[in-house]
Each structure stands twice: as structure tokens, then as C-alpha cells.
Amino acid sequence: MDFASILSSEISKKRKESPTSSATTTTTSSSTTTTAPKSKYLKRSELEAARESEYVRRQREVAAVRAGKAAAKAAEEEAAAAKREEAREKQRRLAEERRKREEELRREREGTGDKPEKQANKEGEEMTEETAVRLLRELGHPARLFGESTIGRVKRCKRIVANHEAAKDPLDSPPPLISEEEMRVKLENVKDDPELVYRQLDAWFRLVLKEWRRALDERPLSVKESFQGRKAEDAMKQAEEYMKPLFRHFKQKDLKANVFEKVCEIVVEAQARRYVKANDVYLKLSIGNAAWPIGVTMVGIHERSAREKLHENQKDGAAHIMSDEVTRKFLQSIKRCLSFCQTRWPPEDPLQLMG
Q: Which pTM was predicted?
């Protein structure tokens, strides 16, 4: 076979195989097109759509968390309100019982002007033995003593009840029935009608402490549990504890004359929202004109005449008022009440705010 025939036979073979190979090539290219990998570039619209969907998802999560916190806070506030209402109801009930007991004691005291031989019989008629035994057991005292008669048991019961009434918390006693307008203290009534002024002072300081506690109760839970929140709560409780002797003085109307006058001036200035002047009166009451109010007794190395009068008050010859521990505590509590008043009832003139 020559070269030309071999070449022609090969060319004919190639022509017969070419359609199949082209079809295979087409199929391969189409399959390659269908299984081609995704492009590594994204459109701006696709990025914005993905970002928007992620933002919507996060906002839904935040809204769900916020709704849960709001529901928990509402439940806490409802529980706190229920607890406060329960405490008020208990206080009203105790006040009513205390009022009835005081009324009974007052009725019993009205008959103390009888003769000695008739007084024991009258006391025995006013309080029965069963009542005396019940009251003694309620107060934690023995109901009967060896060799004690019925009249002696009644007398002992009355004495214990009177001591218990004197030692009770003055803040638990019912407040004077005075409106806010009647709480306005006037300086001309200090000498003319001191009993009215005592009732006004008692009612006004009770109002300040009540508003102070209400302001602390209305704070958010996060603020209450913080360090500053707990510190403010402790300051309020300490002020209430320190002012109990002052409320006893208000009830017994036996406050010292110089302290009574200055406290009246402080209340008058505070009610007029002149807190700077009220602070000046407080400083004059607490420190006065003492040359060394911090307690220094020796101001030099030489003995000088009248050195012992350095700390004396020129009015009554006694040491300045802060030397008494009980008086110092309720005066400092009055200063804290002034600091709260200027936030609760701010003055119209900003210059009247204490520093």
C-alpha cells in the first residue's frame, strides 16, 4: 500500500469520528457550565439584604430581652407595692389598737384623784383580773407572782403597760391630724402657743421622712442594689433612728428653750425654701460662737484667765450643743433632712441651694 492510500484512509477515519467528538465536547462544556463553582464576588444589593436581615434578627432579640426585663420589673413593682400596702395596713391596725389602749389608759388616769382607801377599789373595778393577766402575758411578763393579790396584779399590769408605752418607738405612734397648710410654723407662735408649734414640728418632720422613704422606694432596682443606693438607704435609716429622741421631745413638749427656738427657725426657713438661711441657723445652733468648736481646750502653753469659759455658751453657761451625743445625732439628722428637702422641694432662687 502506498503513502497516498494510507493518508486518505486516515483522513476518512478522522472525518467519521469528528461528530462524536464535537458532541462530547459540547456535553462536557455544558456539564462544566452547570457545575461551575459560585463566584467569589457578591453584589452590593446582596450584601445590603444580608446586613438588613441580620439587623432585623438582632433587633427582635433585643426587643424580646427588653420585654422580659420590663415584665420582671413590673412584677417586682407590684410585689413591692403589695408589701408597702400590707405594711401600711399593719401600721393602721397597730395605730388603732394603740389609740384604743391610750384611750383606756387615759380613762384610767382620770380617776387618780380619789382618796387612797378608795383608789385601790376603783382601779380594781376598772381593770379586771382576766384583762390584767392577758396584758401581762402579751407583754412577756409573769401573769401571777407568789403572794400577789388581785389589786396588786392590776397595779403591776398598769405600771408595765405605762412603761411599755413610754419606751415604744415614737415613729410608730399615729401622726398629728394636721394638713400640710397647717404645718406652716410661725415664729410668733413659739411663745404664744408652743403646743401648736410642737404638733406642727412633729407633723412636718414626719412628712419629710415619709417623702424621703417614698423617694428611695421609687428608685429602680439597679440603683437600689448599687453601692450608692445602699448608702443612701442606710443614711435614711440612720436619720430615722437618730431622730427618735427628738420626736419624744415633741410628744412630751420638753425640748430645751434655745434648741426649740432654733429648730423652729430652721423649719420656718426650710418651709419657705430658703435653705441657705436654714443652714446658717443650723450652724449657729450646732457650733454657735465657740472659738474652738472641735474640742480644743489648751490653746497655748500658758495658763490664762477665764480659760475654762472658752467653750461655754453665753446664754446658759453650758458647753455648746454638740457636746451632747443625743442632741448631736438628731441635729445632724435635721441637716440631712434639709439636704433632702432641697431636692424634693427645690427653691425658686438657685442661690438658696446649699453647697
A: 0.50
Residue 100 corresponds to which amino acid?
A: K
Helix, strand, coil share (%) of the chain residues, nearest 5: 70, 0, 30
DSSP, residue by residue, 331-349: HHHHHHHHHHHHHHS--SS
Over the stretch 108-117, which tens digit does the pLDDT of each residue have? 776 544 443 3
Which among 139, 328, 326 has a CA at the least distance from the CA of 248? Answer: 326
Dist CA 318 CA 49 (whole Å): 84
Backbone angles phi, psi at 199, to 5 degrees: -65, -40
The string of DSSP codes covering 223-289 is: HHHSHHHHHHHHHHHHHHHHTHHHHHHHHHT---HHHHHHHHHHHHHHHTT-HHHHHHHHHHHHTTT
State how far the Cα of 194 lies from the Cα of 184, in Å rounded to an integer. Answer: 13
Tell the residue number behind the cell numbers 434655745, with chain if given. 258
Q: Which residues are CB-contacts of 99 (< 8 A; sequence separation ≥ 6)? A: 174
CA–CA gap between residue 314 and residue 340 (Å, rounded): 33
Strand partners, 312: 319
Whole-number average pLDDT of the chain: 78
Q: What is the pLDDT of residues 130-141, one digit of tens each?
A: 888 888 888 788
pLDDT in tens, 153-164: 888 888 888 776
Contact in structure between 290 and 311 (CB atoms under 8 Å)? yes
Question: What's residue 53's pLDDT?
Answer: 93
Which pairs count as long-range contacts for 71-80, CB under 8 Å and 24+ apart, including other chains? 73/220, 73/221, 76/221, 80/217
Helix 325-344 with 194-217: angle, nearest 10 deg: 60
Residue 36 scores a pLDDT above 90: no
* Residues ≥6 apart with Cβ < 8 Å to 200: 178, 182, 183, 184, 185, 267
**Residue written as grid cell 400596702:** 85
Residues with Cβ < 8 Å from 19, sequence gap 6 or more? Answer: none
Q: What is the DSSP letter of 113?
A: T
CA distance 306 to 189: 38
